[in-house]
Design goal:
By secondary structure, this protein is mainly beta. The protein has two domains: about 120 residues, Immunoglobulin-like (Sandwich), CATH 2.60.40.10; about 80 residues, Immunoglobulin-like (Sandwich), CATH 2.60.40.2550. About 0% of the residues lie in helices and about 60% in strands. The strands form four sheets. Strands 1, 5, 6, 8, 9 and 10 form a six-stranded mixed beta sheet that branches. The protein has a four-stranded antiparallel beta sheet with strand order 2-3-4-7, with no helix packed on it. The radius of gyration is 28 Å and the shape is rod-shaped.
Length: about 210
């Protein structure tokens, strides 16, 4: 069983035993199976040496644990084959990981299964930038939840783009609250730009 991260097309060749009634003998065909993640959907593509006249079907199956599979769709070759092969899109994959396999019903009593492909959805780190209270009266609390540590520089701009005040502090934990002194800042609307090594966030606030 193979498990892949969410990026790019991944090739998987599966040897399957095909029955060609016109030849009256068995032959070996290769089914290349590709997996691609597009936004939050999973795309499966494959080709086969079978012709459009072949009455075989493909069954797409999905699993959470790569052991117990559920049928997502059954695709008939003569209906779906085109120049780009075959395509199945799972628009509602599992949140953390999903495992897929394709079975080829070359004969009703003898399905041929592909190898199992696993798609891993990366866990997105929690990111939060907030200012409380907003509107601000005297002091504001800047709340940051971000994995980056190190020096943070904040610049307060008025709505014309003029720099009004700057703040610097060191971020030593993922979650931090820092007090911004705005007692002498005139009433009005402002933009607070927050910068770090990779952080570049802007928040609008109102001073009353």
């Amino acid at each position: 069983m193979k498990r892949y991260p969410l990026a790019g097309y991944l090739s998987l060749c599966v040897l399957a035993l095909c029955v060609f009634s016109a030849m009256g003998q068995d032959s070996t065909a290769t089914i290349p199976l590709q997996l691609k993640i597009v936004n939050t959907s999973v795309q499966l593509r494959w080709n086969t040496l079978a012709t459009e006249e072949d009455s075989a079907n493909f069954i797409i199956e999905r699993s959470r644990d790569a052991k117990s599979f559920e049928v997502l769709s059954q695709l008939k070759l003569s209906r779906l084959k085109n120049d780009s092969g075959f395509l199945f899109i799972d628009n509602f994959p599992f949140a953390d990981s999903a495992f897929y396999r394709v079975s080829w019903l070359s004969r009703p009593d003898k399905p041929v299964y592909s190898e199992i492909i696993g798609a891993l959805f990366p866990v997105q780190p929690r990111i939060e930038f907030n200012i409380m209270p907003n509107p601000v009266f005297n002091n504001a609390t800047l709340i940051i939840y971000h994995e980056e540590l190190g020096d943070i520089s904040c610049t307060l701009y008025d709505m014309t783009g003029k720099s009004i005040r700057s703040y610097q502090f060191k971020k030593t934990t993922a979650y931090i609250q820092h007090i911004l002194d705005m007692y002498t800042v005139p009433k009005g609307s402002y933009i607070l730009n927050i910068r770090g090594t990779t952080i570049n966030e802007s928040k609008r606030l109102l001073k009353q």
